[in-house]
């Protein structure tokens, strides 16, 4: 989820720095930040928020660090978004518009639009005219993709929101101390949301613009959506990174159907059949007669002879026994529509696992179905 947007940033001309903002402990990202920096030959740095500041407030909290290189523009990407990230063309459009910010947008079905931020833009100038987050009534089939480019003026806009919120908080303190207390418990004065506090108030003021994509776009709201997004990225590789896709006919290499990625360190038996939509990570071992489709196999997994995996995510260091079946019905939106095995899960020979979530370090020796195994 993090790698794809970071990789897309490499296409931005004159890119100075990439920052990851989040709540995870820094040690959890240390190895990844080091490896991705070396791989892309770009400086990547992880910044941990001390507390929730909101989608705009987090940016403002680290403003001094972000502005160290005096950037002319700042991209803001949400990592729960899957798309082609057309960042250079977005930047070109943003410069033509001459506004403070440009947001990536896409048309979706009218039935699904209210799950996202809906907006209205000028069909000629692409100016953002109206924005509302997850409205109860239909506004538009054009939605916010969660990808933005701003000039440094965004920090002034966020600062203005801070000042207004502090003023209102002080007013509440004078008028009613109890009201002020309850209000500040729900939304602190230093908490600024990009959508409600920045996009909505500035719409129609010739400061924000839209750039529409006709490529794929999804938001990763459930673990199962990772499989759908993996499928979209693998399909994109046909046009952008064909060398990353595996090939084989079942003779010297495994039979490959559709789009499949195999890490160079993985070992796959020539009699195995993989695809479509299969991603195999580092040091995976796939035995004879194994059948894999619509799955993500993470590092150091062993899949023994004649095992079958579909609509599943197999966690690090897990082991699947001979003739085992790990599968799900493939409903990406359902809680148990994808089978997920945590780290170091062992599925013994001939065991069937269907529509389950299995936490780490478990051993399964009987059939399980529609369960969350703690």
TrEMBL record:
- The protein depicted here goes by the name Mannose-1-phosphate guanyltransferase alpha isoform B
UniProt keywords (A-Z) are: Transferase
The segment(s) forming the Mannose-1-phosphate guanyltransferase C-terminal domain are 256-373
Segments forming domain Nucleotidyl transferase: 1-169
**One of this protein's Pfam families, by short name?**
GMPPB_C
The entry's family comment says:
Belongs to the transferase hexapeptide repeat family.
On the tree of life, the source organism's domain of life is: Eukaryota
* A single MF term (Gene Ontology): nucleotidyltransferase activity
InterPro entries reported in the protein's UniProt record: GMPPB_C (IPR056729), Mannose-1P_guanyltransferase (IPR050486), NTP_transferase_dom (IPR005835), Nucleotide-diphossugar_trans (IPR029044)
């Amino acid at each position: 989820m993090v790698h794809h947007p970071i990789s897309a940033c490499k296409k931005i001309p004159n890119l100075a720095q990439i920052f990851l903002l989040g709540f995870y402990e820094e040690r959890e990202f240390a190895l990844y930040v080091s490896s991705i920096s070396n791989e892309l030959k770009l400086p990547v740095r992880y910044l941990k928020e001390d507390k929730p500041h909101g989608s705009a407030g987090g940016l403002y909290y680290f403003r001094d660090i972000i502005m160290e290189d005096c950037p002319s523009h700042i991209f803001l990407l949400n990592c729960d978004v899957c798309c082609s990230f057309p960042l250079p063309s977005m930047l070109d459009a943003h410069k033509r518009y001459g506004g403070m910010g440009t947001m990536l947008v896409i048309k979706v079905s009218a039935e699904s639009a209210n799950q996202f931020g809906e907006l209205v833009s000028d069909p000629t100038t692409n100016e953002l005219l109206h924005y509302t987050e997850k409205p109860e009534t239909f506004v538009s089939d054009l939605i916010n993709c969660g990808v933005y480019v701003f000039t440094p003026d965004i920090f002034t806009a966020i600062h203005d929101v801070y000042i207004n919120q502090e003023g209102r908080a002080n007013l509440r303190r004078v008028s009613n101390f109890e009201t002020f207390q309850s209000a500040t418990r729900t939304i602190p004065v230093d908490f600024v949301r990009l959508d409600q506090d920045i996009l909505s108030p500035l719409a129609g003021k010739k400061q924000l613009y839209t750039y529409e994509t006709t490529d794929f776009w999804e938001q990763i709201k459930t673990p199962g959506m990772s499989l759908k997004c993996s499928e979209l990225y693998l399909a994109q590789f046909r046009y952008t990174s064909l060398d990353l896709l595996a090939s084989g006919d079942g003779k010297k290499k495994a039979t490959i159907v559709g789009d499949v990625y195999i890490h160079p360190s993985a070992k796959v038996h020539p009699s195995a059949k993989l695809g479509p939509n299969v991603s195999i990570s580092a040091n995976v071992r796939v035995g004879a007669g194994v059948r894999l489709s619509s799955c993500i196999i993470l590092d150091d997994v062993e899949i023994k002879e004649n095992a079958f995996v579909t609509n599943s995510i197999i966690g690090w260091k897990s082991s699947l026994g001979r003739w085992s079946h790990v599968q799900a019905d493939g409903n990406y939106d359902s809680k148990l529509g994808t089978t997920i095995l945590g780290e170091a899960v062992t599925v013994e020979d001939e065991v069937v696992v269907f529509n389950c979530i299995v936490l780490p370090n478990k051993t399964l020796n009987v059939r399980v179905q529609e369960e969350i195994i703690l």
